[in-house]
Design brief:
The protein is of the alpha/beta class. It has nine helices and 13 strands. The chain folds into two domains: 161 residues, Peroxisomal Thiolase, Chain A, domain 1, CATH 3.40.47; 120 residues, Peroxisomal Thiolase, Chain A, domain 1 (3-Layer(aba) Sandwich). The strands form four sheets. Strands 1-7-6-4-5 form a five-stranded mixed beta sheet, with helices on both faces. It is globular. Bound molecules: acetyl coenzyme *A.
Length: 329
């Protein structure tokens, strides 16, 4: 189990942003397309609506631009763009390259596909780049799942939507925010959730549910252990937004009260790679996180993948970032 090495150069999040397409599909809208009803969907998933439309590059650009503006960073200083997505706009090139061009950045740009765990994978990857010398890294999570969802299939069509969330990471002289992390994959379970190229998502819902609860709790426990943090010390948990019952069952295993969870799935549905940064931004904008607070990110998804990270918000920036008037943590 890897732990953040002492002495590794750290990073902090100094800006964040989100994007959701304008078009909303409510549960009631779905009633005319499949044999389902609003009450069942709310009760079994916690979802009331989802957003559809847009492109992965377009939503990523909007969220990324907002994060850059909040940070006050000169875009010319950004030296890497990591885009977590499981729905790139094209097979080739990576959507990150399109976003880099749309944002006018000159830096390395690449996609990470780890399904719904993708943004946490990208966040850990970005910290690795910073430990190796990068100064400023833009980490975006975006999915346009409406392109791989059959909205006449009640098994999957009630769950998924589109969105994007981004965070701007800056290197600091101090230890930075990330205290511990975990990346996991359970390849033998890949048949529980997949989409062939050009096809729709296929899912064994109960199997995914069962495995997800265990994977989330196990991954979170590994990250907490590597951070030396106990679950009762956490101020906030930002879980992947798939199903409110999966979140509550995994938090129960971790002995964390539901009041500590950041939740947006009622408004967004499952947005895969975007779900953790969307929920994080919602909690930050609501003032739920203060300096020194411990925050746990925990994702799971197709693969089946899982990823967790423990951060201390507003951690040691070091003297290099003491700039007046800056927005952020
Ligand atoms: N509307 C109304 N009734 C339904 C629907 C629906 N959309 N779907 C199923 N039902 C019915 C079933 O027919 C069944 O009826 P019966 O009891 O008469 O046979 C009953 O409801 C219960 O069906 P289950 O399949 O057991 O429903 P469950 O409680 O498991 O909920 C769900 C289904 C919501 C899909 C759940 O299993 C789930 O959330 N699984 C995890 C899915 C997930 O998280 N996927 C994303 C992973 S992340 C990624 O990488 C993309």
């Amino acid at each position: 189990m890897p732990a953040t090495p002492s002495g590794a150069r750290g990073a902090i999040i100094t800006g964040w942003g989100t994007a959701l397409p304008d078009e909303i599909v409510t549960n009631v809208d779905l009633e005319s397309k499949m044999d389902t009803d609003d009450a069942w969907i709310r009760d079994r998933t916690g979802i009331a609506q989802r957003h559809v439309g847009g492109t992965t590059a377009g939503l990523s650009t909007e969220a990324g631009r907002a994060a850059i503006e909040m940070s006050g960073v000169d875009p010319a200083e950004i030296d890497a763009l990591v885009l977590a997505t499981t729905t790139p706009d094209r097979m080739v090139p990576a959507s990150a390259s399109t976003v880099q061009n749309m944002l006018g950045l000159s830096c390395g740009a690449f996609d990470v596909n780890a399904a719904c765990s993708g943004w946490v994978y990208a966040l850990v990857t970005a910290h690795g780049l910073i430990a190796m010398g990068s100064e400023k890294v833009l980490v975006i999570g975006t999915d346009t799942l409406d392109r791989i969802t059959d909205y006449t299939d009640r098994n999957t069509g009630i769950l998924f939507g589109n969105g994007s969330g981004a965070a701007l990471l800056e290197a600091v002289d101090g230890a930075g925010q990330m205290l511990g992390w975990d990346l996991d994959s359970l390849g033998e379970a890949e048949s529980a959730l997949f989409a062939e190229i050009g096809g729709f998502l296929q899912m064994e819902g109960r199997e995914v549910f069962r495995r997800a609860v265990r994977l989330m709790a196990d991954s979170a426990t590994k990250a907490l252990t590597s951070a030396g943090v106990s679950s009762d010390e956490l101020a906030l948990v930002v879980p992947h937004q798939a199903n409110i019952r999966i979140i509550s069952a995994s938090l129960e295993r971790l002995e964390i009260p539901m009041e500590k969870a950041a939740i947006v799935l009622d408004r967004t549905g499952n947005t895969s790679s975007a779900s953790v940064p969307l929920a994080l931004a919602d909690a930050l904008d609501a003032g739920r996180v203060g300096d020194g607070d411990l925050v746990l990110f925990v994702g799971f998804g197709a693969g089946m993948s899982a990823a967790s990270a423990v951060v201390r918000w507003g951690a040691d920036r070091g003297p290099a970032l003491e700039r007046p008037g800056r927005a952020g943590t």
